[in-house]
Give the backbone structure.
Amino acid sequence: MATKRLKRPTDIVQRGKLIGDILTGQVEDVGPEKEPANPAYEFARKGGLKGGKARAAKLSPERRREIAKKAAQKRWEP
């Protein structure tokens, strides 16, 4: 079982004492445990990282130019 991280006191004197104790090694500061990443999130992220490059490689230079012009017009229209 993991040890629980100490709650940070709101009083500045007590907080200063806790920080001093952590720095001198009298108290061990344990960070919050990270949950394992969601497998579906990791799978989707991998696809998202390569999707734009794959799409750009598949498009012809003329089509990429059309898309870029359309995006620039939308970006700068009032």
Notes: Helices lie at 12-24, 39-58, 61-76. The first helix runs from residue 12 to 24. The mean pLDDT is 85. The CA atoms of residues 8 and 15 lie 7 Å apart.
